[in-house]
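Hello, quick one for you while I still have it in my head. A protein chain has come my way and I'm curious about its shape. I'm sending you its amino acid sequence along with the backbone structure tokens. I'd be grateful if you could look everything over and explain what you see. Here's the protein in full, and shout if anything looks odd to you:
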Amino acid sequence: MNGVTDFSNLVGEWNGTNRVWLSPTDPVRESPITAQVSMAAQGLFMTLRYAWADAGIPQDGLFVLGYQRDLEAATAVWIDSWHMQDKFMTCLGTFGTQGNMILLGSYAAPPGPDWGWQIDIAQQTDDALQITMHNISPEGEAMLAVETILIRRPPSLSQEA
């Protein structure tokens, strides 16, 4: 992807668990999740397409992740049928010392001010990927909103699916 990090080793099929918290006091909403990672635009971007469910209703989303050289920044566009509905979120961030991406975006929360959204994408091992998302209040308080743990599908399962 760039000189800072290379996510091409994530290409493949993934399965896991998705957890969503509507507020810190609400019970977790858990569902299975599947994901596909591929490279795009001659390897300049990574796409992460995923499918999950909320209360049994199918949902899906897509990240397009990259590195903008002139800003020396991690970049992303995120869409999700449940979280973002008919909007997309653009994010800007950094690469951590372990090669993880730390992205920040925001969304409207009328009638009040916009809220922040932080997305951390970290490869735990060759075959484990974690995506953690936090709501950030206008006052700067971060609250866990989403935690996704993905495990790489063995190649034989990827070809059969």
Notes: The chain has a mean pLDDT of 91. The longest helix spans residues 155-160.
